[in-house]
Amino acid sequence: QLQLKESGGGLVQPGGSLRLSCAVSDFTLDYYAIHWFRQAPGKEREGVSCISVSDVSTYYGDSVKGRFTISRDNAKNTVYLQMNSLKPEDTAIYYCASDQHYYCSSAPPFQWGQGTEVTVSA
Predict the structure, then answer these.
(1) Which of 84, 7, 70, 61 shows the shortest CA–CA distance to 34?
(2) Would you list the DSSP string of 26-81?
(3) Cβ atoms 36, 9 nearer than 8 A
(4) Nearest to 65 by CA among 53, 47, 80
């Protein structure tokens, strides 16, 4: 069964950096695009970034463009989210999820990780 597991969250000061990892088991990253979403307390879930199979295309939400970078290492079955210049408004639980397609689509992801918490605070 496909499983996704996030790691790398934590407490960081404004302006700092974190790298989140999404380890995927039981399938290869050759088949599905992978998304990062986040949800802050009291707010709706927000799409943060997405990377298609073979890195053909990437997507970033407007609030993170220029600060976050998504990448994948197929040999390690892992997708990364490098987050730089972090702001307090980036505080949220970050989830990775598998798209239904090899490209980044708007279809509901069919598998989610359990999330990793990111707190940006002085």
Answers:
(1) 70
(2) SS-TTS--EEEEEE-TTS--EEEEEE-GGG--EEE-TTTTTTEEEEEEGGGTEEEE
(3) no
(4) 47
The residue among 40, 57, 58, 84 whose CA lies nearest residue 49 is: 58
Q: How far is CA 55 from CA 20, 26, 27, in A?
A: 18, 20, 17
Distance CA 100, CA 33 (A): 8
Which residues is 37 bridged to in the sheet? Answer: 47, 95
Q: Say how far apart CA 70 and CA 32 lie, in whole Å.
A: 15
**pLDDT tens digit at each of 122 positions of the chain:** 668 999 999 999 999 999 999 999 866 677 889 999 999 999 999 999 999 987 779 999 999 999 999 999 888 999 999 999 999 999 999 999 999 999 999 999 989 999 999 999 99
